[in-house]
Amino acid sequence: MTIDTRTGTRFTRRRLLGLAAAGVTPLVFAACGGTTTVDTTSPEAVRGKIVHWSNSNFPFGEDIGAEFVKGFRAKYPNIQYETDLIVGDRFEKMVASAAAGTMPDIGMSTPYQVQEQGLKGIARAHDDFMKTSKVVKQADLWPSLTYDLIYKGKQYAMPFAPDVRVMYINDTVMQGAGLDPTKPARDWDEVEDHVRRIYRGGEGKLGFPPYWGSGVAALWLLPFWQLGGETIDKDGAKITIDNEHGIKALEWLKKLYDLQGGWNSVADRMKVAQTSNAHFVQGNMGYYFATFTERKSKEFLAAPALPFHFTPWPVPKGGRRVNYGGNHCYFITTGSKTPEIAWKFLEFLNQDDVILRFTERYDRIPVKIKVAESQAYQKNDPFLKLAVEEMRVRKFQIPAPGGGEIQAMQVKIGTEAASGQRPVREILRDYQNQMQLILDKFKGM
User: Fold this and answer.
1) What is the DSSP code string of 314-370?
2) CA 270 to CA 311: how far, in whole Å?
3) How confident is the model at residue 33 (pLDDT cuts 50, 70, 90)?
């Protein structure tokens, strides 16, 4: 039995071999080495250096990220902070960095890869930090976010920059079809009715192309969830998509494409404009499901007089309200010799005022519930009010170890079903088996 003295993680011989097979060398310190002790009793007393990986979407060497770093340095003048802008596959680069023993202090991840990084001994559990923090605790965060980050009772990352999706409604297109944009479709039957009335193949008018928005073909999960389906069981050990919920959801989505000339016809039409936003703004579709941030995209901003409304994704009769929402995460690595300092930076980013500045700059939802519900954030904006409501029912990709590999399969399921490549039941059974093989790789590690 070997013990990582920085995290208290116990590594059996079997687990060490498993991590090595997965391409990761666990960073195990001897008792004489280990974590550097840091005096955190006062800001001036905190001394040390941290290296932080970020990406081009949320850089910390420029823009508002650089302002946060400046504020952090002012508060902790004796901390040396460095940021590296990571381009390409962050997950693979982190695995390689772990194997080489050169991990940064803070890494960045998608939420469906965090649990795997916890299992592989790359991400450090954050629970002890949050328990003693006066700035942020797990209970402050949206459960829909922390669900993805908790593995075997431990939270291995801190969320930031989450979003949800809304159904945009083009008023002009709706009115042209004799529909009232203030009374959008409330259920699946009404969606079908509106698609029939809006669709004009010869004119290039689409009612609602479900996958041409934010989430692409993985959005088949949303109606699947609405019907009561779950992608994985409560123990995180079994894939559960091959059932009547999956069949009904995929067949309904294919029906929507068939009502608009079929998958190929819709795909050809969507190639006409450079972006889905442009299609919607130009009046080529009535309904458009995308992140709530799209309303501040260059296409929307270039059409300030565009009349549009918004609504949640219509719910099937007897179904439940669900949203599909993304997220980003930062985590302290097990390679950090000064995790207390790394936590000070993450803690700084989770101050209420910093969260508000970040969400305003990037048009995102605050990770803290009370901040998201505050007037300081919502400012009587009904769009933000809806986005916050949708956070309560947000779901995302399978977060279990292997989630990165599984995510690509979720997209293939939606595409194959909508295009009619093979029977839906066959698609679900095939991919459920493939996904299960991925999950099973990590059992016993």
Assistant:
1) PPPTT----EE---EEEEEBTT-S-HHHHHHHHHHHTSHHHHHHHHHHHT---SBHH
2) 23
3) very low
Given the DSSP bridges, would you call strands 308-311 and 150-151 parallel, antiparallel or unpaired?
A: unpaired
The pLDDT-based confidence of 29 (bands split at 50, 70, 90) is: very low
Give Cα separations from 378 to 201, 285, 316, 392 (angstroms).
Answer: 40, 29, 29, 16
Query: CB of 385 within 8 A of CB of 378?
Result: yes
pLDDT of residue 38: 57
In this prediction, residue 26 carries a pLDDT of: 42
Two tokens at 328? 């980003």
Percent residues over pLDDT 90 in the chain:
85
How does strand 287-291 pair with strand 165-170? antiparallel
Q: Which residues contact 69 (CB under 8 A, 6 or more apart)?
A: 60, 61, 81, 83
pLDDT at 232 exceeding the cut of 90: yes
Instruction: Provide the 3-class DSSP secondary structure of residue 205.
Output: strand
176 neighbors 322 (Cβ within 8 angstroms):
no
Cβ–Cβ under 8 Å, residues 210 and 419: no
What is the model's pLDDT at position 215? 83
DSSP 233-292: -TTS--B--SSHHHHHHHHHHHHHHHTTT-HHHHHHHHTSSSSHHHHHHTTSBSEEEEEG
Euclidean distance between CA atoms 342 and 331, whole angstroms: 9
- Sequence-ordered strand ranges (E) for 141-253: 150-151, 154-155, 158-160, 165-170
Mean pLDDT for 159-187 is: 97
19 contacts 121 by C-beta, under 8 angstroms:
yes
